[in-house]
């Protein structure tokens, strides 16, 4: 799970958004990042959904530029 957290932190830094905003956009859960940094272990489906969100967000930002 550390890999996912590192990917999220890198994404957040690259896009200048907060943990809270990332959770809201990716999972409709403002506390998502905090919870996975704590003791919550997301399901594989959740991990896939987060990675899909990041890829789609990147693609949309690239095509808008």
Concise synopsis of the structure shown:
It is built from four helices and no strands. The protein has 65 residues and is mostly helical.
Please give a structural write-up.
The protein has 65 residues and is an all-alpha fold. Helix content is 77%, strand content 0%. The chain contains four helices and no strands. The protein has helices at 2-15, 19-27, 32-37, 44-64. The longest helix is centred in the last third of the chain and has 21 residues, at 44-64. The model has no long low-confidence stretch (mean pLDDT 93).
Quick tags:
single chain, 65 residues, 4 helices, 77% helix
Q: Point out poorly predicted stretches.
A: none
The count of β-strands is: 0
Distance between the termini: 32 Å
By secondary-structure content and strand pairing, the structural class works out as mainly alpha
Instruction: Provide the succession of SSEs.
Output: HHHH
| Total of DSSP H or I helical runs spanning 4+ residues | 4
As a percent range, the share of helical residues equals over 70%
Strand count, sense and barrel status of the largest sheet are: none
Strand percentage lies at: under 5%
Determine the mean pLDDT. 93
Structural shape: globular
The radius of gyration is 11 Å
